[in-house]
Design brief:
Layout (H helix, E strand, L loop, with lengths): L1 H13 L3 H21 L3 H31 L2 E7 L8 H5 L9 E5 L13 H14 L6 E6 L6 H17 L4 E6 L3 H4 L3 E4 L3 E5 L28 E7 L7
Parallel strand pairs: 2-3, 3-4
Antiparallel strand pairs: 1-7, 2-5, 5-6, 6-7
Amino acid sequence: AGVETVKRAVQLDAASRFQESLVCYQEGIDLLLQVVKATTDEAKKHRYRQKISEYMTRAEDIKKHIEKEKQDGKYHKQIRIEENATGFGYEKLFHEYLTEIVSEVWVEDPYIRNVHQASRYSLYNFLRFCEMLVKGPCKVKTIHLLTSYDAGNGRSQQMSALEEIKQSLSNYGVTLNIDFSSSIHDREIRRVIFNNGWTIKIGRGLDYFKQPRGHFSIGYCDFDLRPCRETTVDVFHTKHTKKM
């Protein structure tokens, strides 16, 4: 398993997919170290140690490269979520960017509105996202939501739901600021910004999950088990964080 993992790391490295290759290098090194401990053949141990040393050196070089990209504001990682893929709940998608210093979050998504659309549970999705922030390692104090008004009779329900989320967040010491834009559809902005420099652009916004089959089907409560709709996630890092 260790050999296969480092082979994958080398392939990703050659393809300039550095963030993914770093993860594979780290996992592969850990597995190979376990092999060294269990091996009694000294010659094999020596060969493994040599390879491990090479992989550790490359992993350190990649770390430095990624850090420099962050400092230069050039970091970019792309995640492709396939149709019907599972394992992409909000915690899994956002956790590595939600560091302890995150205190302010911007959500720009035109479709945080009607809960009764045939394929959308957008308000519930936004609530789930807020729950992740409240229980995460970060100390979020302010969430800024930019969205659009629901049309017709749905507007009153949208406003009521958002106000309820706002009041509930206040019980946890979190302020929700809500702004509405009539032009956000034209700009097609669907992104999440953290004040530690990370920006996550999601092709479908927060609503990349498929509608659950029923209220008592697997995946209704646990988003990691819910099938997704195909979308692309682009992750950027900039030293220039968003200002109010």
